[in-house]
Amino acid sequence: MFSFKKKYFLIIETIKDLNLSNIKKHDKFEIIYRTLNKSDKINDLLRFRKTCKLKKINFFVANDIKLAIKLNSDGIYISASNRNLNYLNLKKNNLKVIGSAHNSTEIYEKIKQGCSTIFLSRLFKVSYKNEKDFLGVNKFNNYSLKFPKKLVPLGGINIDNLNKIKNVKCNGFAILTELKKKPVKIINRLF
């Protein structure tokens, strides 16, 4: 039996990765738009953002403050490699700041950057090239006891190990690769 969480973070690289009509539940999902290849046009992004607002889905832009402000996003996502401290001013604009980390040092860095939620990566083993180590449930739970910020697991979460999330001390989790592979299956499974 799958254990439900309060929030599901869906990380997309293009707006084509996710059909918003598949999302029926309000206030449960948060979308993070990673602007790696910038293939989406600004008008399409504005329409996508408008649909997110109508469905009460929080929308975050990764590492691009100008785009986040242009799209009137709910906040900004700071990747683990981004060590810039200029994000502290964003709270004045009512933008939430979330980030990702891989270890204790990076978690402390994200706390300094003002992140309210921190994705801790990799919970489970992934099939990417050169990515062999992962935290596992016990190590993640130790991190969540050590740090007062809300830690959210990321990495290796798929249809097959979704039931293991009930053993993780967290309020939600983040999905990237599985969302691209099986978007409808994973969205349907979260209800």
Secondary structure elements and pairings:
Layout: E1 7-12, E2 29-33, H1 42-54, E3 58-62, H2 65-70, E4 75-78, E5 96-101, H3 104-112, E6 117-121, H4 137-146, E7 150-154, E8 172-175, H5 177-181, H6 183-189
Parallel strand pairs: 1-2, 1-8, 2-3, 3-4, 4-5, 5-6, 6-7
How would you portray this structure in words?
By secondary structure, the protein is an alpha/beta fold. The chain has a single domain (7-189), classed as Aldolase class I (TIM Barrel, Alpha-Beta Barrel). It has helices at residues 42-54, 65-70, 104-112, 137-146, 177-181, 183-189, and strands at 7-12, 29-33, 58-62, 75-78, 96-101, 117-121, 150-154, 172-175. It has an eight-stranded parallel sheet with strand order 7-6-5-4-3-2-1-8. The model has no long low-confidence stretch (mean pLDDT 81).
Concise synopsis of the structure shown:
With 191 residues, this protein is an alpha/beta fold. It has one domain (7-189): Aldolase class I (TIM Barrel, Alpha-Beta Barrel), CATH 3.20.20.
Radius of gyration: 16 Å
Q: In the CATH scheme, what's the topology name?
A: TIM Barrel
What count of structural domains?
Answer: 1
Overall geometry comes to: globular
**Given the helix and strand composition, which structural class is it?**
alpha/beta
Q: How helix-rich are the residues, as a percent range?
A: 25-40%
Spatial strand order of the main sheet: 7-6-5-4-3-2-1-8
Q: Number of helical segments?
A: 6
Order of helices and strands: EEHEHEEHEHEEHH
Task: Describe the sheet with the most strands.
Answer: 8 strands, parallel
CATH class: Alpha Beta
Question: Low-confidence segments, ≥5 residues, pLDDT <50?
Answer: none
CATH superfamily: Aldolase class I
N→C terminal distance: 12 Å
Average pLDDT taken over every residue: 81
